[in-house]
């Protein structure tokens, strides 16, 4: 056992007594402490409360401030002896620490003797007395390394909470604090701790699953599915009340797609979007699904059907080639048309077939041929172009079999214009809108380790902006009319249909004049 050799008060270090001796008293305990800590920061020292007594009926309040390096870390010290003869000694290392080689916890405490007394007088004013004005160590060179100096005051805590609610990234919160106060020495760790404290307090001790009450509190519609044996929630579907109203008005085209890396649970997030009459995207609903299987998709689609509540069912679904989702749509919405995203088909074919070619020139030629197949506007043209492709690239092993058996024979009616042009999909033949919604959501989330509550807050904020933009577009269509629509039969439609709808009607009329009675040019 080793007795600590504490550094004594030395005249080698300057005496700061004059700096910490004010020329006035203070009206409150807090104002005195605040002034002393400010002087401490100016001199590159951090002062902490060593002892505090609020006072009572027959005694006055008092506070003792000491240097943050005063005393010694309790975890590595123990008292030896009794009374005035007692000394502080290092704790001996345990057998486990000796065997594992673990070192004892480090500390910055060096028994600094700097001490200030703050005492309340009979006149209820607080007076400062410097008991010892010398430190036994040099002042700090950089206050950023001192956690106590970087603590947030009440005003800064409010800023952190408000910006956290606004889904602002921690680094941007810290930059804002430093712009507000150039003397702020908080670090990223300070911001992380403050955000975590707010989330814990806001949760009120509830678990993530118990936080589902947020949806009910904010009048969101939600459904969840539990595991039969463990009673654990495995799937969750939720939808904003305003989104439900939009869906019941604009259910013609629905786009669906799963995205990943949005939550700490590593669950796929199924996002469903629709299109308004003003050509804007709106979010219909969101679903955490435990797996991308037929059963999970059917459950989500049944919830979508419940939202419609007997209103007009979707005319068209646009998705990727997810087999479980394809079967689920056929089961829940058998009368709806289903299109496959042409962009994703092209992407998958490119990735699959590129390794079949030995040179880039041949592959480039193939992709040109395949693109012509992908956008064939008649059945005869599709057969002609597929035959040309088979003849030209039949020597490439497995190529034509892959295209025929995986895409053309099975799904041609879901992506080739010869069939899809007969469906009123309003030009929506890709899942680009839902992909864009994924991108916006991830941008505002900031990371892939969010919990349910954080993700809901982000979604709620995004939908508020989304719904405001949609309302503004409705007002624009009702109150602003382009000059070309003042004449003719358009005049009867003004104020009843959107500008986007008027444009589609105009384009079709102009196209009809160009095509005439030649049905082969239609489509």
TrEMBL record:
- Residues annotated as domain MULE transposase: 253-347
Q: Which InterPro entries match?
A: MULE_transposase_dom, Zinc_finger_SWIM
Short name of one Pfam family for this protein?
MULE
Official protein name in the record? MULE transposase domain-containing protein
Question: What organism is recorded for this protein?
Answer: Stephania cephalantha
The root-end lineage is: Eukaryota, Viridiplantae, Streptophyta, Embryophyta, Tracheophyta
